[in-house]
Design a protein that fits this description.
alpha+beta, homotetramer, 347 residues, globular, 17 strands, 4-stranded antiparallel beta sheet, 5-stranded antiparallel beta sheet
């Protein structure tokens, strides 16, 4: 199952083409809508004020409610653009954004309005694709879940068991510990008041993958496969599996996971490996953490260069922006993980 | 330029096929040998005692000293195998190793001796491929360098400027601060004495890539491209670009890199982005850190399950092993980075 | 530049996503429409009576009239479906069609109405993609043209020089020799009257490709690249380059193309190789011929098996069908050739 | 299963890396050798006088006689090179060869001796790879066979039934009708005496593929998949499935294959489609014909241009050459077909 996302933040529509969807899947549109709803900004001050219905229209690949197996194209119309906000940014690259890199890459022809194809809005079709992937995985007993592990230094409680994640998707603010969640919200709102933004991290689990998927080799390495999907999510700057960066502080006797029996199954007593050894699933839950940079759009004045004059200047970004995208990114990371899991499963 | 690595630790040979090498490159065999030498274990107690000449034989793709542009195959014969050490491990998967995952993946048919195709020995052909990539990059002014950033909690000094890396490749122990290096060595030797091993991290820089390489989309995202090469290196468990995991502690005003002029060039005053915005190079050095797990081969007794009987049991891993692979992995990470850079450059 | 086509003949829409379009192309919508017009059925008896406006809506990848370089999605709405014609064919696979193969492939879930995703209607988005490719090629002096070389045994005159093709695209019936064209039309109309259909062949030229594109190796072989695009066109059953099947009747002294100078250029005096040696362009025009099977939809009774009962039975295909698709396929073959040429050019 | 072929005709060795070979295959080395033997020139005047043992050394991917599932590298050393024959051809491109195209493609750096990487000698590792593929296919009941269908206008008898091919692989000259074979040999020997060469065609069958493999879409189209493997065989200039070019002379009522029952199986009464409808296997044997150009190496004087002086001149090709490669190409075409079938089977 391959996905190709198209669209620009202020263009007519965004969407996705999914190839090699298994035929005969009764598409659960309610589930797809609920996943899109998890990503959609709330009506509070934690997110952007842009309001979009995000109702997908399916143009192909579904017949009589079931997937046909041929390419599935879903389109989401844009409606609540305020393109005027961006006109004066045309030649002023915003620090932390891809404006300058994109300008060079696309010879100045990329749609700069609202970040264009770089916009976080493009994660809506990704969530659509991920919802399809999740539905397929669920039918084979595979669960994908995630929670905010930290925002601006406020940590959620550590995950001990996958089951702790079962209720998180239904929460408005996807944390294990709601008290920590309130602290995180306070940190977001404080940043917002100060015309700033905050970063954070998300921990995600794919539970139920059988042992033996992937390979050590380039292009098939399980962690490599996951990371390619994860880094394609805007703002992700780090990906760590299992004990992750803490491995650098460990001895082998600490980092190795003792091998044991659990009934007839061979398991490990700990899961520092995060479900992968040598790039191959070992039957334990795949666990990883991604770090997301703070939203680069902030109202504080920032230094930049006017590309039309070549002069150094300042920029203040007005318009509607997320003071933090970590909470909205939780279903996006799950979507990327679900698609990666499908690739490893050969779906 | 694509690479395919083949071979097993105790098989007749290991090697690599490089496709789409630019034609007409006068292959610098001295440089290739010196890169292989950096990876080869020293004769001290910091590394394994296995001694291999690692002399590559080029079977194709080079004519009259120049690359032909057609596939280049280089082979390195194995000579110093002690396969007997492994016979009793045949059905005892080693914790932290890919033995169990590989057993399932390959239906019990993979070569278990010395880790087989999962062995760190397979990084020798990767270094060969990387040396070719580095030579190509060097001709267009691109530098690839790395240093150990930490071992078991001992940190090297922070990298301020790429030029600090210029002399590191020539060092026996690739750190910026040799005093820190001595502390790291002590940590390694102590672990070794205690029949244990240690993990660490490597910071790597690719300097000189032009702005505008890569794309935000899945499969072309610059960080995704790099991460796929990096996770294909055994023991890598985390990859972080620029400020990396520290982004989770930052506000946008801290994390954003101010844009400025440097002569005629547009640069950023800081490089928290690590050279990528929106998956596209921004003209600043690509900077990333990888975390390597401690060598899983340790002599201490560990819990495992005998795959032939299904009984829980213990294992003590004898034979020759690295108490730390971080220092030997530095040229390997550079090799992976060089190959990733070539992909982004369209080489 | 990669293309992905989606849609079904009787679904809401068909379309294409084009990735890696060069940025900054001023899209020539008039040209695109004229290419789509060449493929659209005429209002005569030579083609199906289904009438569609085939007006593409561009959802992404174009900003202020220019390509952005990010994925371009174009959608064509279906409007003139007569799905009722197909209801009774639901379980009756039509001989010569992909109904049975598709039924097995897609577990009976593919959209059978009008051939669904297998429909010749899906060549409209291919022509869209090809028109973009042609426009890009034209800007570097590359010409793509084709003519009907035969229909049901009636041959067009042989092509001596590429320039003979310049006016053909503007013709209603794309042949070099209009008298031969009239004979072909008569053959089509006669078949139609007899509730039958006819096959034929198309000769296509890509002129202006520089020497040195492609490689002998699998996946890069120039003829292999072209053939993959060409066989993806419905009804194509044979692809032959240069002298093609006549090579089997030749001696080396006849088949070899003498090498000569033409001004400063190195050329061949004949072009039996059809522009490729060893899978690499040699600077001569790429010339190939494709054979298209007769339209499988015919009104004559045919033998089939009812998939719901397992009984052998007969089928008569009513509805609107092309008695010949060769004339409408000329711009489609050109489109496939243009996309293949772009791949070889590294566009 | 992917294959990558490396090597040059007069380099140290040629070989192949096979990735994703199923683990646990007991490699049948006798069968591999017999397949390589079918390709090797006989000691008669029908083929080149170059004599090579063609004994493969397996460097990786096989352990205790079984495939490990990790990349399998097999190397064949070159021994009987006469490189002196080629020295004066260094700057004289041979008509019909890839010398000029390769010179441009590889900036004059390709190994010109014996055709280098373009040499028909590179089909030996392809036959190795194909033998592995055939062994895998055989275990699931799939048969791959071929015969010379024509040489220089002398036709073999038409194939009525796949079983006619069963004994052909054991023949010195792989035809159905040995009398026709004698005529073909006479045509070859006559061409040889006249310092010339002849072309021909090969018909190949893959029997036993289940219905439902492939897809109509670009990149997955069954005929497209096969053609990419087939055009990667040197000298192949045309590929036609089923009725092939004869479809251009047919009406739909002739070309369509009536659908019927054969016991419980759904079959077609004829197989004009050659086993594919809409790019998907229909359960009937895959049947195709390839056309091979006459060997371009002929002793007769031919026109060329000296690349060092830019002057038009003549060339006479001395050395050891095949007056026809069609008979030796039969196992090569089977090998390409077996690899294509594995791709469609998802092996």
């Amino acid at each position: 199952m391959k996905y190709t996302i198209f669209g620009e933040s202020h263009g007519p529509a965004i969407g996705v083409v999914l190839e090699d969807v298994p035929a005969g899947l009764v598409l659960d549109m309610e589930f797809i809508r609920s996943e899109l709803g998890r990503r959609r900004p709330g009506k509070d001050a934690l997110s952007t004020q842009r309001q979009e219905a995000d109702e997908p229209e399916i143009l192909s690949g579904v017949f009589e409610g079931k997937t046909t197996g041929t390419p599935l194209c879903a389109v989401i119309r844009n409606s609540d653009q305020h393109s005027g906000d961006y006109e004066r940014l045309r030649t002023l690259p915003r620090p932390g954004h891809a404006d300058f890199a994109g300008f060079v890459r696309y010879d100045g022809c990329n749609d700069y309005r609202g970040g264009g194809h770089f916009s976080g809005r493009l994660t809506a079709p990704l969530v659509f694709a991920g919802a399809v992937a999740k539905q397929i995985l669920k039918e084979t007993g595979i669960f994908v879940g995630a929670h905010i592990s930290s925002i601006y230094g406020v940590n959620d409680t550590a995950l001990d068991d996958v089951s702790q994640l079962y209720g998180v998707a239904a929460k408005d603010f996807p944390v294990l510990d709601d008290a920590a969640g309130e602290e995180m919200k306070a940190a977001i709102l404080e940043a917002r008041e100060q015309e700033d933004s905050v970063g954070g991290s998300i921990e995600c689990v794919v539970d139920g993958l059988p042992a033996g998927l992937g390979a050590p080799d380039f292009g098939q390495n399980g962690e490599g496969v996951f990371s390619q999907y994860l880094f394609a999510v805007p703002a992700v700057k780090a990906v760590a599996f299992g004990a992750g960066v803490a491995f650098s502080l460990m001895r082998g006797s600490e980092g190795n996971d003792p091998i044991a029996k659990e009934g007839e199954r061979i398991v490990t007593k700990t899961n520092h490996a995060g479900g992968f050894n040598g790039g191959i699933t070992n039957g334990m839950p795949v666990v990883f953490e991604v770090t997301l940079r703070p939203t680069p759009s902030i109202a504080l004045p920032q230094e930049t260069v006017d590309l039309s004059t070549g002069e150094e200047t300042e920029i203040e970004i007005t318009g509607r922006h997320d003071p933090c995208i970590v909470h909205r990114a939780v279903p996006v990371i799950e979507a990327a993980a679900a698609l990666a899991a499908c690739e490893l499963m050969g779906i």
